[in-house]
Amino acid sequence: MKEFLLCFVPLFVAVDAVGVLPLFLSLTDGIKKEKINKIILQSTVTAVVVALAFLALGKIILNMLGITVADFMIAGGSLLFVISLSDMMAMEKKKPSVDPESVGAVPIGVPLIVGPAVLTTMILLVDQHGLKTTVSAIILNILLTAVIFLFSGNIYKLLGKAGSKTVSKLASLILAAIAVMMARKGVMLFIGH
What we know:
Layout (H helix, E strand, L loop, with lengths): L1 H14 L5 H7 L5 H32 L4 H21 L14 H10 L2 H14 L1 H20 L1 H41 L1
Helix pairs in contact: 1-6, 1-7, 2-8, 3-5, 3-6, 3-7, 4-6, 4-8, 6-7
């Protein structure tokens, strides 16, 4: 259970479902409930497929390029730190222009649910906790995001704009700490060789 939580928590923070909630609401504003449910399904399927495809091919591509686990931990930790710092400093997440028919796939499924932070975190977690644990954790996180989106109106009313921003900033701070830990472990692994 501890192993799963060590995998689940960084992915939960990287996905940041509560943080992207205001953006999800603005992207689906004025769309009927039935259509929103289809958008949530489309985003969930897209996110799972992209995450699993990246897990399957990411390591192969890294090996072909001669990138070691230590290299990726240092680079991935640095990237996650920059992403989390950018999220902490940003006033609001930007709303991209969207096509109502594909909004579930792009931008909600990718990159809002499964973006660079999630992809980087997954690759790093596979080496630390194994494929089975990482796949379980990412799928559970994506399904949890779908549930949060299903109840988005109620959750946003409960948290309010300020509460939602606070949760998002706190998640970014935790992600920054996880990024530093990953980079530190990468340096230690590199020095150990």
